[in-house]
Amino acid sequence: MVVNHTFRFVWIGLLLAGFSACTGVGPTANLFRSSSPHEKYGQSLKEAKLDRTALGTDWLSAGERALRDSLKITIPYRESGYFSANKAFAVGYRIDAQRGDRLLIRVETQGQKETQVFIDVFALESRSQTSLIAASKADTNVLAWEPRRTQTYLIRVQPELLRTGQYTITVTREPALSFPVKGRDSRQISSFFGVARDGGRRRHEGVDIFAPRGTPAIASVDGTISGVGVSKLGGNVAFLTDTDRNIRLYYAHLDHWNVKNGQHVSIGDTIGFVGNTGNARTTGPHLHFGIYGFTDGATDPLPFIRLGRGPARQSLLPASRLGDSVRVSVTRSAIRLAPTSDSPVLRDVPKASALTILGGTETWLRVELPDGLTGYVMSSATEAENRPLRRVVLSAPRPLLDAAYSQAPSMKTLPTGASVDVLATTSSFQLVRGPDGQTGWLPINVAP
Q1: Do 231 and 288 form a contact (C-beta atoms < 8 A)?
Q2: CA 258 to CA 43: how far, in whole Å?
Q3: How close are the terminal C-alpha atoms of the chain, in Å?
Q4: What is the pLDDT of residue 199?
Q5: CA distance 241 to 118
Q6: Which of 415, 411, 445, 412 shows the shortest CA–CA distance to 428?
Q7: Of 122, 119, 124, 160, whose CA–CA distance to 143 is shortest?
Q8: If you placed Cys at 143, which of 1, 30, 105, 161 could pair as Cys (CB 3.0 to 4.6 Å)?
Q9: Residue 446: its pLDDT value, please?
């Protein structure tokens, strides 16, 4: 039986190696629409009829399941995890992101073989509806992405088949645009978007950045200058068009300009100099900075230029613990949607409940329950399964199952009188260690 499995893995590996050397989806690539590397890889499995094998089916199913069973994280965030060649793996992370963010998703892997990891970002329209909006390039484990709308998104990470390794995912945020006043940052903003003006007759359509008169107001993007002129409210003004994002940047109250209409500028070029022209003559010198969409009017510029939240500082889980089996060590513990103590509870589990560590941090473990539920649990609420809970002597022969359900395959039959150590439990099964050290599952009603 081992020989057959080995042959199947080698055969699938050779086929996948051939596909990874292609730039498309085989000879009929032109018949398919442009798609992400993940989709092309899945199509490769189907072209080779590997989707009819258990491993191929499991890989496709794992990718779909990650979209339904995603967990919630807050940026910046990092955690470590583990994937095995023997089990298809994919994980989904749900995030809240704003228009104006620039997110960097990086997945670093360690293993015996170089591993391609597919990173895809989906807009989460509803719990059952997602739409792909960004994907990492083939053979890269990094994705830089800017959301076009403020909403919930889902990051899916899935390695190729037949790879075993550890990974660290890091998600960080930085502003999409460069700061528009030289030598300043968002801490110098003192008036924000939406604040009442003229006794409530209008709203502030930008942010005010105070700086000494003559400080350079600089280009936040590469683009084209338009609308250089004078207005009653803005004084000396200029617009900078960013066609990549379909927005126009508005620079107002300039002391004087340094550009002309139609001029192409690069990030950091001087648009003009900070002043207090227009209706700002009674205030100190500052730049009024606004952003206008091509079709949706004024938008809050703060997310586009505010300081990033810094690097992810979570302490990573030691690699030696990835894949370990643990049990709940307290009376009851919550399995949560996110690695925070105030996140929604997916399930409360009692003491001695069996958990498998899929990843996480030193403080919060991302675990899987025997029935497949995944979530986060506090590391301090768990313990290793080294010390048995109790010992049971079997009164009749019992099959040792490889999973905690009645139809699971039997690994061996334990004879009458066999002494087993109970390591952890579920509501219906107990994880035991047999006389030879092999672990497996027995029904909970097995008694001395």
Answers
A1: no
A2: 53
A3: 34
A4: 64
A5: 34
A6: 445
A7: 119
A8: 105
A9: 55
Largest Cα–Cα distance in the chain?
A: 95
Looking at this protein, which amino acid is placed at residue 373? L
Residues of the chain scoring pLDDT < 50: 1-12, 14-33, 448
The pLDDT of residue 197 is 72
Q: Evaluate if pTM is beyond 0.70.
A: yes
In this predicted structure, what is the pLDDT of residue 138? 79
Amino acid at residue number 230: V
Task: Output the 3-class SS for 376-444.
Answer: EEEHHHEEECCCCCEEEECCCCEEEECCCCCCCCEEEEECCCCEEEEEEECCCEEEEECCCCCEEEEEC
Quote the Cα angle for 86-400-417, to 5°.
150
12-51: per-residue pLDDT in tens?
453 444 444 333 323 333 333 458 999 999 999 999 998 8
Q: Is 271 exposed, middle or buried (0-12, 13-18, 19+ CB in 10 A)?
A: buried
The vertex-355 CA angle with 349 and 358, nearest 5°, equals 130
pLDDT digits (tens, 9 = 90+) for 254-305: 999 999 999 999 999 999 999 999 999 999 999 999 999 998 889 999 999 9
Token reading at 293: 């969409």
Q: Which residue has the tokens 């994919």?
A: 90
Domains of the chain, start order: 1-176 (2.60.120.380), 188-194+203-305 (2.70.70.10), 319-384 (2.30.30.40), 390-443 (2.30.30.40)
Residue pair 156/176 in contact (Cβ under 8 Å)? The answer is no
